[in-house]
Design a protein that fits this description.
430 residues; alpha/beta; UDP-n-acetylglucosamine1-carboxyvinyl-transferase, Chain; 2 domains; 4-stranded mixed beta sheet; 13 helices
Length: 430
């Protein structure tokens, strides 16, 4: 049963240190790569969110042995050739990453499977993945010719393709690369704008030969991956909520440790710097597969800015919380080139604008983003989360600065990416 939650923090001061949960994108991929590699893969810092647990459940149904001990995972696999045909559907829950990346893997397997998710996944477009996979020879059928789940995949032999990405999407790129592992020939992907590169990094970590130069990614088919250890960094998309909280709450300072600083994900940091946020960063290990660092933020006199262009794919999940930040900045903030927000867990452009308006924000939607004028005092109200974890967390952070309580209609949805979110908020309240 969905649970609402009332938040009345009375404009607190925030102080303390937090280690946010493991990166969702890296956690998903650690299970997938461990499930296709030969040998014993170990994972530390795994995200125990609902989405990632659904990924584990999918691979267990394929016969992959996976043991979970807290945030440590052990995966035993002899490669895709030994996968078993599942007797039940592979349920992906709310996870677009699981659904889309699994399509790429399953297309080149030797099993027949059916993928299905929750009501949110049923509305999210899948043709952007299925079309290039079909060009490779994939046999995929589904609702409205594969536009939506449920989707049935008959694994088969695939042929490599040379594909130009119409829009920046790490999920589409990753699905093609995962299909390319088992395809005949060399798969080439051409990106106009750089998207998240976790898949490319992890392919190298598992021993694959892959090149990525000037926006052109090339992967030779027929490579066998070898088990390894994956250290999952803290998720910068989760950290973003506390980065914003620390800058907009009065007399505050928050330190976030072990945050992933992959350059394809650090758009949030660049925007905060542009908006005059008080922030310092200490790099832990830049040579690691996924670089990490410690970020400290404090209360700031923020300035409005324009957020658009090639930075958007590097902060697409952070736009809801950036919109809240903009309500407290001096002047106008314009978010543009963000049409992709319309096909996330919900239409995030409409959702963000509608919910922040309830709080008193001066915000209007545009075709590809929103315009926010600030600073504006915010007042408590009921926030509809739409079952979207990032809208839920945006509402919860807003409660730190509103006059009066905020009621979240569905607080449970936050567990998708951040199961300990409310405990961590409470930990920094002084």
């Amino acid at each position: 049963m969905v649970k609402s939650k009332s938040l009345d923090y009375n404009k607190p001061t925030l102080r303390g240190k937090i280690t946010v949960p493991g990166d969702k994108s890296v956690s998903h991929r650690s299970i997938m790569f461990g499930g296709i590699a030969k040998g014993r893969t170990t994972v530390s810092g795994f995200l125990l969110g609902d989405d990632c647990l659904n990924t584990i459940a999918c691979f267990r149904k394929l016969g992959v042995q996976i043991e979970l001990d807290g945030t440590n995972v052990v995966i035993e696999s002899n490669g895709m050739a030994t996968w078993q045909e599942p007797t039940d559907i592979l349920y992906t829950g709310n996870s677009g990453t699981t659904t889309r990346l699994m399509l790429g893997l399953l297309a080149g397997s030797n099993v027949h499977t059916v993928l299905n998710g929750d009501e949110s996944i049923a509305k999210r477009p899948m043709k952007r993945v299925i079309n290039p996979l079909r060009e490779m020879g994939a046999k995929i059928t589904g609702r409205m010719d594969g536009q939506f789940t449920p989707l049935a995949i008959q694994g088969t032999k695939l042929q490599a393709i040379d594909y130009t990405m119409p829009v920046a999407s790490a999920q589409v790129k990753s699905a093609i690369l995962l299909a390319g592992i088992n395809a005949e020939g060399t798969t080439v992907i051409r990106e106009k704008e750089v998207s998240r590169d976790h898949t490319e990094r992890m392919l190298r970590q598992f021993g694959a030969e892959i090149t990525n130069e000037d926006g052109i990614v090339s992967l030779k088919g027929g490579q066998q991956l070898t088990a390894t250890h994956v250290a999952v960094p803290g998720d910068i998309s989760s950290a973003a909520f506390f980065l914003v909280a620390g800058t907009i709450a009065k007399n505050s300072e928050i330190t976030l440790e072990n945050v992933g600083l992959n350059h394809t994900r650090t758009g949030i940091i660049e925007v905060l710097q542009e908006m005059n946020a008080n922030m310092s960063i200490e790099i832990d290990d830049e040579s690691a597969s996924e670089p990490t660092g410690t970020i400290t933020v404090s209360t700031s006199e923020l300035q409005g800015t324009t957020i658009g262009g090639d930075v958007i794919p590097r902060l697409i999940d952070e736009i809801p919380i950036l919109a809240l930040l903009a309500t407290q900045a001096n002047g106008q903030t314009v978010i543009k080139d963000a049409e992709e927000l319309k096909v996330k867990e919900t239409d995030r452009i409409t959702a963000v604008v509608d919910e922040l308006k309830k709080l008193g924000a001066d915000i209007v939607a545009t075709d590809d983003g929103m315009i926010i004028n600030g600073p504006t005092p915010l007042t408590g109200s009921t926030i509809r989360t739409y079952g979207d974890h990032r809208i839920g967390m945006m509402g919860a952070i807003a409660a730190l600065i509103t006059k009066g309580a905020i009621e979240l209609d569905d607080a449970d949805c936050i567990a998708v990416s951040y199961p300990t979110f409310f405990e961590d908020v409470q930990a920094v309240i002084n």
